[in-house]
Amino acid sequence: MDTLKLIALDEEDLQILSAHLQDSVLKVDDVEYLAAEKKLVLGVNRFVWEQAVDGKRRRTFERRRTALLFDRVRNVKATGIDRRHGDDILSLLAIHFIVSDSPSGIVELTFAANKALRLEVEAIEAQLTDLGPAWETTFKPEHEI
Which domain of life is it from (predicted)? Predict the structure, then answer.
């Protein structure tokens, strides 16, 4: 499977990134805010949903190491995330945009266990880039509806 490289410049694009990143896992130490550069970088292990939902019955699935970059970030606030516990695991559920003074607003990354990152952004500008080969997993995330 080809690697993904996606860019989000509006709310609709961000929803597409969110769908591809749902159930990504990362350590707290894999989150880096570069305040001087107005960037937030996350290194995640992305579940490859585009293969898992292809209609084929599967016994194995894939994950890929993926970089997620947000530009034009003015500020970052965390809820339920303690930087002193760098090995704690975060499981990404969704990414949403809350408009404040268009095009600026809040990009909210919602994680399991009531954890979140809220990015105050000048505008939506995000990139998803797969970094290397996939590895096999037998676990497919499932959610109650």
Answer: Bacteria
Report how far apart, in Å, the C-alpha atoms of 25 and of each of 22, 70, 81, 111, 138 are.
9, 17, 14, 9, 15
**Is the whole model's pTM more than 0.85, yes or no?**
yes
Nearest to 74 by CA among 37, 28, 42, 127: 37
Q: Other C-beta atoms within 10 Å of 143: how many?
A: 7
Quick check: is 139 in a domain?
Answer: no
> What one-character DSSP code corresponds to residue 20?
H
Give one DSSP letter per residue of 61-78, joined into a string: EEEEEEEEEEESEEEEEE
pLDDT tens across 62-99, in order? 999 999 999 999 999 999 999 999 999 999 999 999 99
The count of domains in the chain is: 1
Give me the domain span that covers residue 78. 5-53+60-133
Dihedral over Cα of 72, 77, 80, 86: its sign:
positive
Asked if 116 and 110 count as a contact pair (C-beta separation under 8 A), the reply is yes
